[in-house]
Amino acid sequence: MVSVEKGWVNFAPAAERNQAPILSELQKVLGGAETIIEVGSGSGQHALYFCKAMHELRWIPTEIDELLPVLTTNLKSYVDVAGYPPRLLDLRDPVWHKCFSLVDAIYSANTLHIVSWSEVISLFEGSGKLLEAGGKLILYGPFRYDGRYTSDSNAEFDRWLKRRCEESGIRDFEKVNELAEKAGLKLLADIEMPANNQLLVWKTG
C-alpha cells in the first residue's frame, strides 16, 4: 500500500502508524457502503490511504475552514483520481449535516478528544440525520470506560489535552454511547486497537 510523503503539510506520524490496522477493520464493517464522509481529515493521510485500498468507495474528506486549504493541497493527487475534493464541515455549525446528501457511513479518527463537548454532540446529532437506513458511524480514538483510562499513557495524554485546552479530553464511552442512542444509533462493535485505542461502530435502525 502506498503511503503519503512525509513532505506533506501537517504530516501526522500517528496516522501513518494506525492506518493499516484501521483499514483492516473498515474492510470488515463497510460492506455494501458506497459514500462515506470523513469528519476532520487533518492532513488527508487516511483519506488517501483508504481510497487507494477501497477504490469502490466515494470517500469525502472534510475539514474546518482554517484547515481546508492544507487538506486540499495535500490531496491534489487524490482529487485528480477520485474526483471528490475536500469539503467544508464544521461541527460548530449545528446544521452542518444539511450541506450533504445522505451517506452510507461517517468516519472520524482522533477527533472526539480534540473538539469541545458541544461539537461531540453536534457530530452525533448530525450523523443521526445524515446516515441512510442501516448506515454506520465509525469513530477511532482513546476512550474511558466506567471512568477509568485504558492505560497510564492515556491518562497522561488526557492531562496534556486539558492543559492545552480545557474543552478537550478523552471522552467517556458511556456518555458517547448515550449520545449515539439519542441520535437513533445502536452500538454494533467496540474493537480494541493498537496503542490503547478503540474503533467504535454504530448503526442506524
From TrEMBL:
SUPFAM superfamilies: S-adenosyl-L-methionine-dependent methyltransferases (SSF53335). InterPro entries: DUF938 (IPR010342), SAM-dependent_MTases_sf (IPR029063). Gene3D superfamilies: Vaccinia Virus protein VP39. This is Methylase. It comes from Amphritea japonica ATCC BAA-1530.
